[in-house]
Amino acid sequence: QFDLKEKRSFFGQRKDYWDFLCQGLAQRRQEHEGIRFVTSLDKLKTPVGRGRAFLRYCLVHRQLAESLQLCLLDPESLCEWYYARSPFLSSQLRVEILRSLYELDGITFHLAL
Question: Is 7-104 assigned to CATH 3.40.50.10380?
């Protein structure tokens, strides 16, 4: 969420990193299983809650690095969603973040989805 621009939906609801992830993954794939899973959960009402559930899903299924990498491929989209101080806009920091996330793929997470 660091340096995420404030965006609003058509109905005025604040958009969050969940919306960024949905948009980024929709541009790269037909459908992401994690997005489908999270949107099927009726208890989740806010973008932050959906984003957290998506992160847990990706950790359990070892997909966090790949999913985020797909979202970070489009520089125009990054500039649309994040201000200049965001580590996602620095190629060096982006590589370090993704490298660290790929290392998480070696860890087995047992999180309540």
Answer: no
Share of the chain above pLDDT 70, in %: 96
pTM (global) more than 0.85: yes
Q: At what angle do helices 47-60 and 64-71 cross, to 10 degrees?
A: 130
Domain borders along the chain are 7-104
